[in-house]
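Exercise 3.2. Students should predict the tertiary structure of the chain below and write it as structure tokens, then compare their answer with the key that follows.

Predict this chain's 3D structure.
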Amino acid sequence: MSSSDPPGATQRWRLELAYDGGSFRGFAYQPGAETVVGVLRRTLASTLHLASEPDIVGAGRTDSGVHAFAQVAHVDLPLAPSARTPSGERLARSLNKQLRGRVHVSRIDPVGDDFHARFSATWREYRYLVLEGEAPGLAFTNAWSWSVATALDLAAMNRASADVVGSHDFRAFCRRPANVEVGEALVRRVISASWERLEDQWSLSAQSAPACRFTIRAQSFCHNMVRALVSTLVGIGRGEWSEATIRDRLASGSRHQLPPRAPAAGLALVAVGYD
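Answer key:
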């Protein structure tokens, strides 16, 4: 702390995080619930001997059970000597030692006060993994993917996915927030959305390519949007729904009789973009 720093001055830090969402009730802080931010707050306060747990702001709020490989967050930490703030590299090492793999801090760097993990972000990217055909029967696959019992028509799913690109009212595919009136539009801008098959590098099944990956990038997302889109697109790939279903429901805003959301375990936040 320099002589020019006023009492109570803080330094903003940018964190890049990865975590297994299976053991958390989501990313955002919830009193009395085990969340990613809750664990980070406690660990930071303990490591830096803070008088209170610091507020942490993330680029996006992943739901319960959803993973992240590239979540971005920021935290304002005191500049007072008693805070004992080490360098970013040393702080990351110390945090990771205590977090024991539940959350991994890949980077923590000082940034200016004008940086905001949520509002400075220009896009977020999620991926969803689906195992098609005969599931391998291994419990761990259910921790990071959704196994479906039939082969999928990825060409049809990609044609339907093209309909989500652009700015649309996603009411039919989102859980309505408490502060949004019934019938109010939930407009989001999707930049890209597509499916691809992956090679089975681990020989998880007798098939040559049992895994399908959905990648979607948008300026922002509303609650449960990706999982609701995935379940509908998988239904299209199974031949249970018309390829026009996505386009029709974006126009009508109706979720009536659409399939339940895809399981949370297949979803992960994989990138956040900043100018």
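Discussion points: The chain has a mean pLDDT of 89. Strands lie at 10-19, 56-58, 67-78, 103-111, 121-131, 146-147, 166-169, 187-198, 211-218, 267-274.
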